[in-house]
Amino acid sequence: MKNLAMPVLHLVLLGVIIAAPFVFPDYQTQLATLWLFIIVSLTWDMTGGQMGYNSLGNIFFYGTGMYVAAVITIGLAHNVSEYTDAAGGGIFKFTSAQYYSGVVLGSIGAGLFCALSAFIIGYVTFGLRGPYFAIGTLGVAIAAGELVSNWEWVGGGQGISMPNYPGEQERLFIYFCFAVVGVILYTFLRWLYSTRFTAAINAIRDDEEKAEAMGIHTMRYKLTAWAMSAFFVGIAGAISAFQLLHFEPLETAYQTINLGIFMVVCVLLGGKGTLWGPIIGATLFHVFKEITWNYFLGWQWVALGALIVITVVYFQEGLMGWLMAKKPEWFGIRIDSKDPASKIAEAAE
């Protein structure tokens, strides 16, 4: 029965994923945003939870993915510099084929470019550890935002506009784009976390010096893990570019204060180093954010700060860690409650 429980749960969840935007058509945008939170949380946990390298710069891959997708999509039909020229005033049209080609090629291109960027940046930043690594990656994201805001070829500070969806179900289309990427990411991580690769990055998290002494090529594993994470974040950024239609470098693409912090809070809330922790944390945080940003406007950042303090003080292992400690039997963990004296007496009998 236990062997059937997980496949049945997955089928039920798949049915919920497919039905959700039709059952709640007025909340398709919010549901799509939930998938975005799940994707960036799962990817952050690949390095922050599984490997012990807490990055504050994953938003770099998100923003870069947006711009790469935009350049590819626009470049398929028009000259990029003419399109982004503020004084151009031209009319630029896209066919349905060009739009959908831009979504596919732009997303894949964004993922690959961000994975390559992770390799290059990682050679420098992985020389840092602890808070220095977090600050170093944050600096990369901030610098990227400033550089792009002064790069007129991609619109500079005014940002860049994306083509409109050639139909009437844009929100539904964006939802399923995010959902497909999220399901693929979950499936990939479910497999990855059962391999020796994850055992190696867990060893790096527990004691990197010992891992190196055991013959683990730590730099190779760190670069590979971050590149895989960056690949999916880049794709999420690409889809967000089509969802937003117009985005700016500092306020939208490289939003270190918003999404850059949210993905970390989601993982801390749900539980680092687990597969379901980031998913649960992203879901709870999204509900919390929707309530506070709609009903406590002006106090939403105070509420967010309070949530972070409560999580760090009372749920240091996240909700998953707290549940595993309170209800270990739910996770197949057997706790022997007998004391040593009782065991000796039983053995003597």
Report on the structure:
The chain has a single domain (29-300), classed as Orthogonal Bundle (ABC transporter involved in vitamin B12 uptake, BtuC). The chain has a two-stranded antiparallel ribbon with strand order 1-2. The radius of gyration is 22 Å and the shape is globular. With 349 residues, the protein is mainly alpha-helical. 41% of the residues are buried. The protein has helices at residues 2-23, 28-48, 59-75, 80-84, 96-125, 131-149, 170-192, 196-206, 208-213, 218-244, 249-253, 259-270, 276-295, 300-314, 318-326, 340-348, and strands at 160-161, 246-247. The mean pLDDT is 88. Helix 3 (59-75) packs across helix 10 (218-244) and helix 7 packs antiparallel against helix 10 (218-244). The protein is built from 16 helices and two strands.
In short, what is this structure?
By secondary structure, the protein is mostly helical.
Write the layout of secondary structure elements.
Elements: H1 2-23, H2 28-48, H3 59-75, H4 80-84, H5 96-125, H6 131-149, E1 160-161, H7 170-192, H8 196-206, H9 208-213, H10 218-244, E2 246-247, H11 249-253, H12 259-270, H13 276-295, H14 300-314, H15 318-326, H16 340-348
Antiparallel strand pairs: 1-2
Helix pairs in contact: 2-7, 2-10, 2-12, 2-13, 3-5, 3-6, 3-10, 5-10, 7-10, 8-10, 12-13, 12-15, 13-15
CA gyration radius, whole angstroms: 22 Å
Contiguous uncertain segments of 5+ residues: none
Oligomeric form: single chain
Any idea how many domains?
1
Percent helix among the residues?
Answer: over 70%
> The CATH topology is what?
ABC transporter involved in vitamin B12 uptake, BtuC
Strand content: under 5%
**General shape:** globular
> What is the spatial order of strands in the main beta sheet?
1-2
Strand tally: 2
Main β-sheet: number of strands, strand sense, barrel status? 2 strands, antiparallel
